[in-house]
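Readers of this paper often ask what the protein records in our data store actually look like. An entry from our holdings is shown next, in its original layout:
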Amino acid sequence: MSHPVFIYDTTLRDGAQAENISFSLQDSIQIARLLDDFGVHFIEGGQAESNPKVARFFEEMRKTPLKNAKLATFGMTRRKHTRAEDDTNLATMLSVKTPVVTLVGKTWDLHVTKGLQTTLDENLAMISDSVHYMKSKQREVVYDAEHFFDGYKANPDYALKTLAAAAEAGADWLALCETNGGVLPHEVAEITAIVRKMTTVPIGIHCHNDTGMAAANSLMAVINGATQIQGTINGYGERTGNADLSVIIPSVMLKLKRKCVPLKSLKRITEFSRTIDEIANQAPNPRQPYVGRCAFAHKGGMHVSALQRDQTTYEHIVPDEVGNQRRVLISDLSGRSNIQYKIAERGLESDGDELKKLLSRVKQMESEGYTFEAAEASFDVLAARLRPRYKQPFSLDGFRVIVEKRGHEEPCVSEATVKVNVDGKTILMAGEGDGPVNALDEAVRKALTNVFPQLKDVKLVDYKVRVLDEGAGTAAKVRVLIESGDGQSQWGTVGVSENLIEASWRALVDSLEYKLMKK
């Protein structure tokens, strides 16, 4: 029977070493609580000696103990030529009172002689003394063998001696660290299998992603005997990051069929991944396996046609298994199947002639520079407008935009006037704004909200402009993407024109019409 795989999360320590990531004390506490609820087995809180904030974290965490996970602190083995009981780092690790301590020691003889500037025998004593001392204090000890794979390749006998020193001193786990991220999966498999044969102590794996192999290396270690995986949520970490637990956990459970986190947690791992990104103030990676927005996105018409018959034709798992969802994209690569899928997905009906018209219109608009991949609300509006029975809630009779600068040091003033038609009645309204698009937005809202009060809830969330033919200079055609929201959902719309204001207007009109269609 296969052993379960234990997840050791180091988001708060290794993950925090990533560029542009900095966790506040409250962030760290919130992440630890979320990890505990998610079902990981170990949570590494950081190196208490290096940062007073980390010490505060452990102090705060003692007030409300974790329900599922064990909290670990991290630190080096004792210093050279120092007794373990006299080492300040080990004393600090004990002072934070975590049930687990993770000791990192040197495996590579190069690091022993050049980095520590000591003898190989003294390094073995440093490992043994530190592990033995922590075990005498009733701590569960994870021994992290730093640079293990590079060390093994350089001097296999010595690398194995460092593991033996930790094991004989009582270590509960021997974690093989692929610290530089340059070892390939077949090497990890071979070396892990050798370690598995020479010890009865459970083995862990800790990989970095410098060659994009961290997830693959972690899985190869498990296949060859490791039962603990160290990593970070979303792969945060120094340089190119650590092994991504958001990718590894589904692979362990769905591909290797091994017990890991609770099944209910696997079904919400997409939401969990994005929540951690939100706390870390990071934009989610849309192409992240399993949990990314694009992970189950399909564009080619042939793919979508096959999916409608059998989802296994172009999906390796059911998206629901990881809490994600299938998305069919509309583009110039779309076929009839894409259009049919999108119509059915929204619970709408459309006959064959309407589908042909819609597909033809989509391809024509794509050739003009439109894209509906990030503007699905514009696609919905387009599909509605092509139906014979559909009546547009309002139409444009015209608009005028004035931008005025009244002095060298004065800001520009923008004013827009719009004329819209609702049920045969013309409404003329003006608005001011920070810029011409903002003024146009203000004017059209003032014109329509008396008739359609639900438009008051619509807010502009994001506004992007893309120049489509840069060679045309200031006469270039532009594509405007608008992200709108009403507090309950968000939607994207698109407009294209040689005139930036007109392109913005088209995207804006689609956004407001989509809101009215939703009702």
Notes: The CA atoms of residues 29 and 61 lie 7 Å apart. The chain has four domains: 6-279, 297-367, 368-386+459-519, 394-451. The longest helix spans residues 500-518. The first strand starts at residue 6 and ends at 9.
